[in-house]
């Protein structure tokens, strides 16, 4: 019988910062906004060589505007909508997670020096980027992919162009 592992504590350092794009977090209208992932000076431009050959990135980032007080380790309905089932913390994709990390798959437009120009990225200006890698479709999910019915309804406007947001 395998012994239950104890939680490990470790530090990570950001490798880049998001510049521009969304100015505030939002639940919808995340599409068609361009931003830059600016690699920190300690990493040479050489570390980005070859990345321009990929259409999309896998970006791990920190919800830097969230507070540890925002973590919600209990059942709750997505977006507070009682029409959707109450689910646990790890069935949500928002800042209320223990480590307050996000993962996104922005489209890479171009690489200029240490700047990765991207679109369809839901992090906001100033977001620390923990890691990035190219998206390899062959490394995506294996087998059939499914979600509960409410997810389609909940996210129907998520990637709508930001310009369509009602003011």
Set down the secondary structure blueprint:
Elements: E1 16-19, E2 34-39, E3 57-62, E4 101-104, E5 107-112, E6 115-119, E7 128-134, H1 149-154
Average pLDDT figure: 92
Largest sheet: 7 strands, antiparallel
- In DSSP terms (H or I, runs of 4 or more residues), the helix count works out at 1
Intertermini distance: 58 Å
What are the low-pLDDT stretches, counting only 5+ consecutive residues below 50?
none
Order of strands across the main sheet? 4-3-7-1-2-6-5
Structural class: mainly beta
User: SSE order, as H and E?
Assistant: EEEEEEEH
Describe this structure in words.
A hairpin with a 2-residue loop joins strand 5 and strand 6. The relative contact order is 0.30. This protein has a seven-stranded antiparallel sheet with strand order 4-3-7-1-2-6-5, with no helix packed on it. It is globular and about 45 Å long. The model has no long low-confidence stretch (mean pLDDT 92). The termini are far apart. The chain has one helix and seven strands, in the order βββββββα. With 167 residues, the protein is mainly beta.
